[in-house]
Design goal:
The structure holds 2 protein chains of 2 kinds.
Chain A lengths: L10 H9 L4 H13 L1 H19 L10 H11 L20 H7 L9 E4 L2 E6 L6 E7 L8 E3 L3 E7 L2 E2 L4 E2 L4 E4 L8 E2 L5 E7 L3 E3 L2 H10 L2
Chain B lengths: L10 H12 L17 H17 L2 H21 L4 H17 L11 H17 L20 H19 L3 H12 L4 H6 L8 H16 L1
Helix pairs in contact in B: 2-3, 3-4, 4-5
Classes of the chains: A alpha+beta, B mainly alpha.
Organism (chain A): Salibaculum griseiflavum
Protein name (chain A): Transcriptional regulator
Pfam families (chain B): Sigma70_r2 (PF04542), Sigma70_r4_2 (PF08281)
Chain lengths: 219, 217
């Protein structure tokens, strides 16, 4: 378990995740943070409860006349699942929470990193195209190039910590940045920092070299 | 005042909310009908229905759940962009999933309608958006023992309060929430709206999580 989490998801993100309307890359950040954070797990349950009430008070759409019979037939074709004990999880020592491991196909050692300069490495995770998810590896003391955002950028710390113009972000913390924030995250000395970052628009770099490299790096 | 109506007699509230859900123009304040919500007994009745499916493969209980929820799930999916045919097919799958996964339902953590909503929502993402849905890691303590009846009652009561709080919201705010859940608002549009009537169920769930974490130590 990470130390105390100080930076949580916004209501808008939790509601969007609950409603099922966020891009897949954002869903991945939300599911990963919730895996680490009881507070946000409880808040998410509440947004799910709102969804439940909305369905319960919803207007109705007429079902076809044979719909119940068809459903019962489908059920008898595939019998009820037997109750299973939860598969033993070897999460204790993993750096990546399970939602990310499912995209990577394993823990950190399975990540296919690519260098993006300044010692920083990244790995793009395959999600739907409307937003991008990537893992970032920032060696202790190194900086991610100074950048701003056209849309929203979510950064979840998985190992180590970084600081930027706003605050310190440790393991489990999530930074929600929008177009108002220009920042330069710097990994703290000590442990190398690993983050999951998701963006719904290309980042805007403030220096020329990263700008030129951007199309190749897909950031 | 609240009435202890049986679930199937909840038409008054349905019509009222349906107006908001489908309204192209906001209703005038004068049109606000009196609130009729399903009471805690109804919610406990739905819980028993799911338990009857789980324990006895009770088709009559399933038929009642189907009669109430399938038309609402179908409407939810159509509001979210599914054609009537796709919504029909999807709804049948959602209801079949309830049968198959009845043993997964935990009435100390969610109301039956919340559970149905999450199943329908996941199906919606799968079918309409053809995307994977990353889900949070399960909590590390494995399956829980049968929950205490009192905990179940409390959670179901909190859900009822939440439902009433949503029903009592000003029309404009309620309209926004419905739009958010139907996928008609972007993330940044949701971010601009505040003041949801939250804070009850969260604290219940938070307490349960704290207790379980302590037990794990």
């Amino acid at each position: 378990m990470p130390q105390e989490i100080k930076h949580h998801l916004t209501d808008a993100l939790l509601m969007g995740y609950s409603a099922g309307t966020l891009p897949e890359a954002f869903n991945l950040v939300v599911a990963s943070h919730v895996s680490l954070c009881d507070e946000c797990r409880a808040r998410l349950a509440e947004f799910d409860a709102v969804g439940g009430e909305i369905v319960a008070m919803s207007e109705t759409a007429e079902m076809s006349a044979d719909s119940l019979a068809l459903t019962l037939a489908a059920i008898s074709d595939a019998p009820a699942e037997e109750e299973q004990a939860a598969a033993p999880e070897i999460t204790g020592t993993a750096v990546l929470p399970r939602p990310i491991r499912e995209y990577v196909g394993g823990d950190v050692e399975a990540v296919k990193w690519r260098k993006i300069g300044g010692g920083v490495r990244q790995a793009i995770l395959r999600t739907s195209k409307n937003a991008t998810a990537r893992l970032l590896y920032i060696p202790a003391g190194c900086a991610v190039p100074d950048h701003g955002h056209a849309g929203t950028e979510l950064t979840l710390v998985l190992q180590g910590a970084f600081r930027d113009e706003t605050d310190r972000f440790g393991a489990g913390d999530v930074e929600v940045a929008n177009e108002d924030l220009d920042h330069q995250p710097v990994a703290e000395d000590g442990e190398d920092c690993i983050c999951l970052a998701a963006t719904d628009a290309p980042l805007k770099f403030n220096a020329m070299i990263p700008k030129l490299a951007q199309p190749f790096l897909r950031i | 005042m609240l009435t202890e109506a049986i679930p199937l007699a909840n038409a008054d509230a349905d019509r009222r909310v349906a107006q908001y859900a489908g309204a192209k123009a906001p209703l005038s304040n004068g049109a606000k009908a009196k609130v009729t919500q399903s009471g805690p007994k109804d919610r406990m009745a739905w819980v028993s229905h799911v338990e009857a499916i789980r324990d006895r493969k009770d088709q009559a209980a399933f038929a009642e759940l189907f009669g109430y929820f399938a038309p609402r799930v179908k409407a939810f999916l159509m509001k979210s962009g599914a054609s009537p045919d796709l919504a029909e097919e999807c709804t049948q799958e959602v209801m079949a999933t309830l049968w198959r996964k009845a043993h997964m339902f935990d009435p100390a953590k969610a109301s039956v309608s919340t559970w149905i909503f999450t199943v329908a929502r996941n199906r919606k993402i799968d079918i309409l958006r053809k995307e994977r849905r990353p889900e949070p890691e399960d909590l590390p303590w494995g399956p829980e023992a049968e929950p205490e009846q009192e905990e179940v009652m409390t959670l179901q009561q909190e859900s009822k309060k939440l439902g009433k709080a949503i029903a009592d919201l000003p029309d404009k705010q309620k309209d926004l929430i419905l739009k958010a859940y139907y996928g008609e608002l972007s993330h940044s549009e949701i971010a601009e709206q505040t003041g949801l009537p939250l804070g009850t169920i969260k604290s219940r769930i938070r307490l349960a999580l704290d207790r379980l974490r302590r037990q794990m130590k």
